[in-house]
């Protein structure tokens, strides 16, 4: 225990910079994923014929072991933070894509019919009915993606992407328990904070009328 | 007002509507009734182009509706559905003001209208305007559903079994209110139902459909006293017809109808 505290006081600047690196790698990956996955998810609800294939393809991406995917990035993009971000971005797509797709698909068809019957255009229905109704589920996907990405980002160190994984893998290699524990705890802490923050975001995004439990 | 001319609807090989001719007059409460699959809902949804016919012509005030923009057409026709379908993320006020907003009406103008309409169905605007649909009972929700269709003052309102999802007591209440309301607002209403009691209670004219065609189109009185054929007799039910004979040996008065509408 004393050892560990000593390690922290001596190396805190390294730990902090790795923590920062880990955060922004994850953040960039998830944000890029969000910007692609949500519009793509919406688009898929409009295209009955191809949505199976796209979801299937993204599902396959997800089943590639993360270490292997990172390894595959090396011949394509070399080593460093960029290939790590790209790999994490690919991983973050599925939860957000799937949630956007199902969230919009599961909006009560009666609401869509009423909206259409009242003279709303498809775009107005998307913006004013479907998205507000689905936003909570979409943000749920964002939350899952964020937490997963933070834990997967640990592997980025393997291809020189930096982040807290550096402490974990170096700790393993050098049999330095203090390093290993610091890396693991910091990652867990970061994921927990991200969970709390994204939960808050999800709550804030949910329209008020949808939070009310039925009176009767 | 609304006229169907040789309207047909086929889906694949199935013929849903077969050469339909109808005249719906201005200001009347026109009920489409029949067993499920008879084409009554299809007929109604063709009026606001939620369903497009395969052949034939539909006119509103002499204008071919297929030459108009469907979105504009729908904004000028009120629409109420069985599932009520108030938008749960919008307040009652926002729900009712939706079509006026789509039509870019002035805020001050529609706010007043929303209050008026809420008052008209006995929901105090001060209490209910800022509530969400989930905070209202089923009966209250469908009252809002009905006034939402009136907010932009459309000359025509389409209602697809609006009261059938409600409990029997709310249903009775809403039907009574609705009959009163119709007298004051004087709109052309096309009302789909499968409930003969409801039809008799509210209709100016009843159009009984079966298998994509009109079997009989008459006022409730005539329908009850001179059913056109066996199908009409069976659909109305022997019990109701017997009651008519007992109550009205010779002629009938519509005022007496509600008495036996509760069976």
UniProtKB/TrEMBL annotation, chain A:
Principal location listed in the UniProt entry: membrane
Subcellular location: Cell membrane; Membrane
Ranges where the ABC transmembrane type-1 domain occurs: 19-198
InterPro entries: ABC_transp_perm/SBD, MetI-like, MetI-like_sf
Domain of life: Bacteria
GO CC annotation: plasma membrane
Swiss-Prot/TrEMBL GO biological process terms: glycine betaine transport; transmembrane transport
CDD domains: TM_PBP2
Membrane-spanning segments: 24-45, 66-91, 125-145, 152-174, 180-198
Family annotation (Pfam families): BPD_transp_1
Keywords tagged on the record: Membrane, Transmembrane, Transmembrane helix, Transport
Family: Belongs to the binding-protein-dependent transport system permease family.
Name the record gives this protein: ABC transporter permease
TrEMBL record, chain B:
Main location per the UniProt record: membrane
Cellular compartment(s): Cell inner membrane
InterPro entries: AAA+_ATPase, ABC_transporter-like_ATP-bd, ABC_transporter-like_CS, Gly-betaine_transp_ATP-bd, P-loop_NTPase
GO cellular component, as recorded: plasma membrane
CDD domains per the UniProt record, alphabetical: ABC_OpuCA_Osmoprotection (cd03295)
Enzyme's top EC category: translocase
Database matches in Pfam families: ABC_tran (PF00005)
Annotated family: Belongs to the ABC transporter superfamily.
Protein name: Quaternary amine transport ATP-binding protein
High-level lineage: Bacteria, Bacillati, Bacillota, Bacilli, Bacillales
